[in-house]
Amino acid sequence: MLYYLDHRERDNLRMLKRSNLNKIGWKEKDLEELLVKNLDRILDEETLMPIFTERSFQEEPDIMALDHTGKLYIFELKRWKSNEENLLQVFRYGQIYGQKNYEDLEKLFLKFNPNSNSLVEEHREYFKLANEEWINKEQFNHQQHFLIVTDGTDIKTRNAVNYWKKTGLNIDSIVYRVFVTDSNEQLIEFNAYSPFQDVIEMEQSNFILNTNYKNNPHSHDEMMNEEKAAAYYHPWKNKIKRIQKGDKVFLYQSGKGIVAMGIGTGEVHMKEYQGKSDEEYYMRLEDFNKLKHPLSAKKMKDVTDSNFMFNQTLFSVDKKKSDLIWKYIKDNHL
Q1: How many CB atoms lie within 10 A of CB 271?
Q2: Directed axis angle between helix 155-166 and helix 86-97, to 10°?
């Protein structure tokens, strides 16, 4: 639940008015577009790799993703109140796509990602799998897991999910809630999903940003010289909007490690990139420091006792880990 904090009545919790997408004029496709274009907000990108989103007029799940073992995650968005057919449709998708082999999944993946390498290559790169962790084509889609994205007021669907989960079916729900404020602002609340954690309660406000050196060394040099964090093209450029004023930002160069760090200003700017208007989003960084020598990925793991997926454009790091990295850099790399 969301409540107002009233500085005049500090002993009173007044709840925001609950609503739903239908009441505020959103169509079914609107929610799907919102979530598809912000997958990194509903998925834990360290553990799930999106491979496909629904095409119009096709009997397909809304979103599909893989984990590092090749298990297939099937997402279905329930925009409004459920009916008896809702979960039956989801199970039908499971029946259809549970029988897909590697070649079938790769065809779907390449329709969604036409400029990518093979699915097996992209999967290895995405999860940074060591040679002994590689999976072969036969291991893709060895198991399926259903994820139902549903309105918090949709008790029928939530109860049905809980029932099937008790029977041993791999199924979970991601609940969203819609609110309207006194000034008629419309808010939506939902939690990210990770296969290792039912809900991620709060997005962390410290980030590691890849400098795009692998794709364009000039982008890396510009970030370092202009003391900024930047990302390019949709949907990756939108990730810069996640950085708020005061957030710690570490710049990571592929193959090297962290090469610089600074504090977000909270102001997002747009500029031309490779001849295309507004395809770079960037933010100036305060208290900017270039490292004398990079902090390697291995050393970061040693310092924080954690693993990181560095192939992402931008990912969040919790306060404890970011403070450890920040202090280690201050003590050893400046």
Answers
A1: 11
A2: 50
- The CA-based diameter of the chain, rounded to the nearest angstrom, is 63
Query: 3-class DSSP state for residue 189?
Result: strand
Q: Report the 10 Å Cβ neighbour count for 303.
A: 16
Cβ atoms of 248 and 322 within 8 Å: the answer is: yes
**Burial, 284: exposed, middle or buried (Cβ in 10 Å; 0-12, 13-18, 19+)?**
middle
Give backbone dihedrals phi and psi of 176, rounded to 5 degrees, phi first.
-115, 155
- In Å, how far are 147, 181, 194, 242, 245 from 264, measured between CA atoms? 34, 29, 27, 10, 5
- Per DSSP, the three-state class of 282 is strand
CA proximity to 48, closest of 232, 251, 200, 253: 200
pLDDT tens digits along 138-174: 999 999 998 888 776 567 777 787 788 888 888 887 7
CA 9 – CA 276 distance, rounded (Å): 51
Residue 233 domain boundaries? 206-332
Do residues 173 and 221 both lie within one domain? no
pTM as predicted? 0.60
Q: Which of 200, 230, 247 is at the close of a domain?
A: 200
Q: Tell me the CA distances in angstroms from 202 to 36, 147, 247, one per residue in order.
A: 20, 20, 14
pLDDT at 80 over 60: no
